[in-house]
Specification:
The structure is a homodimer.
Chain A: E1 5-6, H1 16-27, H2 44-61, E2 67-72, H3 75-87, E3 93-98, H4 101-111, E4 115-121, E5 143-146, E6 148-149, E7 154-155, E8 166-169, E9 186-190, E10 201-206, H5 223-228, H6 238-254, H7 256-277, E11 281-283, E12 294-299, H8 305-314, E13 317-318, E14 329-332, H9 339-356
Parallel strand pairs in A: 1-13, 3-4, 3-5, 5-8, 8-9
Antiparallel strand pairs in A: 2-10, 6-7, 9-10, 11-12, 12-14
Chain lengths: ~350, ~350
C-alpha cells in the first residue's frame, strides 16, 4: 500500500504491484535484456501484451461475440469525433444527454459533423443531477451518454432503455461495476481512471454497427481501420497498453468486476455516510445520482477551510481539492484506492467534526 | 550499455540512464511517494515536465520566436490528417513528395480533405532513391516532405528550396542532425525513434501560419486548440512525454544535436563502408540518398542467409531483419545506439566475409 492516500481524479492511483511490474519492465521486459519501450511493437512479446489486454477486457466485462476491443490514442476527446464519423449517417442525426463538461464536449464535436438533438441536460443546476424520463427520438442514429461525470460527482445508476443504439463514454467508471455490453453499440473510455495510465483509450465496438454511415471517414478516425489492423495500424502506445494489461490482470486475480463493484460500494457508502452525518459537510450531487467514483462535497462553514486542509494534508491524503467549476472537495475512489484510504479520510472528517462541530 | 545491440527500427533503443530514471519515476516520482503515472497532469510536478520538454525541443533545435511546441497523441498518422486541416485552404491544394509508404499515406490522407498534387515519386524503383529537380507548384498551399524513410533506408540530404511553405514529417530523423526550423511552417514527428517511447508526437508549428484555411476544424485536430491549452486540452500521455524529456536532457548533456550529428555520421560511415567493401553485401538505397538512421542491405548470395543470421544472433545483435517490403537487412542506428554496437555488427560482417567470401 502506498504511503500516500491518493484520491486524484485522474490520472489516478494504480495498484502498487502493477507499478512495481511496470517499473521492472522499463528496464528488462520478459527477460529479453531489453526495455518494454525499446522493442518493436510487432515483436511477439508485444503482440502477446496487446492480445492479452484485449482478451482481459472481453473476459472481465463479459463482452459478447461480434464485438471488437481496440486500444487507440487520443483520449475520449478524440472519441467524441470518432463517434459521429462512425455512427451518424450522412444526413442523419444523433441524440445526446448533457450531464457535464465532457458530455457537452462530446455533443459539440458531433454538431460539427451533423445534426444533434440534445434530449436532456442538467446544466441548469451545474450538472448536479442526472436527467431522467426524457424522450429518445426514434429517428436518431444513436443515443450518446456519459456514464460518470468526474467533475460533478454524478453517475448513471440505470442506463436508459432505448430503441435506438446507445453509445457510452465510460471513461471514469469502466471496470468499476458489472455492465451488460450487449446494450451498447459502442463503449469507449480513456485508460487513466480504472484501467491504466494516460495515453490509451479502449473501444468496445459492435462490428455489425460499423460501415453504415455513407461517409468518407479519415483513416485514423475510422474504427474499421483499427479493427482490420488489430490496433496496430500505426505504432500503438506500448507502455500505456502494457500497464493497462497489468491492471486488468490485477483486477481478474482479485475477483474481477463483481468483486470490485462490492469494494467500490463499500468505499462510497463509508464516505457518503460521513458526509451525510457530519454537520460540517454537505454533498454536492443529488443523492440519488451520487457517483461511486467521485464524491463531491463542501464545507458548511467555509471559514474552517484552512483547518480542514491542514488536517487531511497531515494525514498524507492527496488529491481531494475540488474541481474549479464545483469548488469544495472531490474524493475520487477509483478501483485501486483501498478502503483503508477512505477510512483515513473519514477518520479525519470525524475528528474535524469533533473539534469544530 | 545494454547487453543487447538493439538495432530495432522503432520503437527503438533509448539511453540506459533514461530507462533507469523512467523506471524509478514509475515507483516514486520527484520524491512525492507517488508514481509519475498516478498524479494529476495538472499538478505542478507534471506541468514542469511538460514545460521542460517543450523548452528542450526549442533549445536543441534552435526553434525561433513565433513557433510553438506541442506534445500530442495519435502518431504521425493522425498528423497526416492535421496537416491538410490546418494548412490547406478550403478550395486550395497541396503538393506532396512520395518517398515511401508513410509519405504516400500522408498524401492519401490529404486527398480526403482536398486537392493534392504529387510533385515527385520514387515508387517506380521501390522507393530506393529520393527524387530531385521537381517543379513545386507556386499555387499550392504547402509542400509536404518526409525527411527519412525508415522502411527503405533513404534520407533527404538537402531540403527542397521552395517558395511555398514546407511541412515535414521528421518522425525518423528529428534530433539526429542540425536543421533550420525557420525553413518550415511545421515539423512533426512521432517520438518513438530519437525522442522517446511510442505514445506522443511532437509538433513544431509557426503560429502565424495557422487559422488561415477557412475550414471548420474538429477540435482535437485543430492545432490552435492545443496551443491555447498548452498541450493539455485533454489528459496528455504523461509517461511518453516524461521519457521524451529525459531523452532530450540526455542529448543536451552530451553535446546536443551538433554532437549527435557527428556520432551518427561516424556510425553510418562505419557500416556503409563495410557494406560497400564486403563482397557478400550490397546496399539497397541509392548511395547518394542513404539514410544515416536506417541502413538497408542484402546478401549477394541468399543461400548464406542462415549462416549470417546465426552469426549476428550469437553476437547479441537484435532487430536487423529487413522490412517485408524490402527484404534483406535493416540496421537502424538511432541516436541512442552506441558506435560500439555498429562496430560489433561490422565485425560480424567482416568475419562472415572471411569465412564465406
Amino acid at each position: 500500500m502506498s504511503k500516500v492516500h491518493n484520491f486524484s481524479a485522474g490520472p489516478c492511483i494504480l495498484p502498487q504491484e502493477v507499478l512495481q511490474q511496470a517499473s521492472e519492465a522499463v528496464i528488462n521486459f520478459n527477460n529479453l535484456d531489453l526495455s518494454l519501450i525499446e522493442i518493436s511493437h510487432r515483436s511477439k512479446d508485444f503482440i502477446e501484451v496487446m492480445e492479452t489486454a484485449q482478451s482481459l477486457v472481453k473476459e472481465l466485462l463479459g463482452v459478447p461475440e461480434g464485438y471488437e476491443v481496440l486500444f487507440l490514442q487520443g483520449g475520449a476527446s478524440l472519441g467524441f469525433l470518432k463517434v459521429p464519423y462512425n455512427f451518424m449517417k450522412a444526413g442523419g442525426s444523433a441524440a445526446y444527454v448533457d450531464t457535464g463538461t465532457w458530455a457537452s464536449n462530446a455533443m459539440k464535436e458531433a454538431q460539427k459533423v451533423g445534426d444533434v438533438i440534445e434530449v436532456a441536460s442538467s446544466a441548469d443546476k451545474n450538472y448536479s443531477y442526472i436527467p431522467s424520463n426524457y424522450p429518445i427520438p426514434g429517428e436518431a442514429d444513436y443515443l450518446h451518454i456519459t456514464t460518470n461525470n468526474t467533475i460533478y460527482g454524478t453517475q448513471l445508476k440505470k442506463f436508459p432503455i432505448s430503441r435506438i443504439p446507445v453509445i457510452a463514454d465510460m471513461s471514469s467508471d469502466i471496470f468499476s461495476q458489472r455492465i451488460n455490453v450487449s446494450n451498447f453499440d459502442m463503449i469507449y473510455a480513456g485508460a487513466q481512471k480504472n484501467m491504466g495510465p494516460a495515453g490509451t483509450t479502449v473501444y468496445i465496438v459492435k462490428k455489425s454497427a460499423l460501415g453504415k454511415t455513407g461517409r468518407t471517414i479519415p483513416t485514423m478516425l475510422d474504427l474499421e481501420t483499427h479493427i482490420k489492423k488489430e490496433s496496430m495500424f500505426n505504432t500503438p502506445p506500448v507502455f500505456a497498453i502494457y500497464v493497462s494489461m497489468l491492471t486488468l490482470q490485477w483486477l481478474k486475480k482479485n475477483g474481477g468486476v463483481e468483486w470490485i463493484e462490492k469494494v467500490n460500494q463499500d468505499k462510497a457508502d463509508l464516505l457518503y455516510n460521513e458526509i451525510d452525518n457530519n454537520p460540517l459537510f454537505v454533498g454536492v450531487a443529488n443523492p440519488a445520482d451520487r457517483s461511486n467514483m467521485n464524491a463531491t462535497f463542501i464545507l458548511t462553514n467555509e471559514e474552517l477551510k484552512d483547518e480542514f486542509d491542514k488536517m487531511w494534508q497531515s494525514a498524507n491524503i492527496s488529491g481531494i481539492k475540488g474541481h474549479r467549476s464545483v469548488g469544495g472537495y472531490r474524493a475520487s475512489m477509483y478501483n485501486a484506492l483501498p478502503l483503508e484510504s477512505v477510512q483515513v479520510l473519514v477518520d479525519v472528517m470525524k475528528e474535524f467534526g469533533q473539534k469544530f462541530g
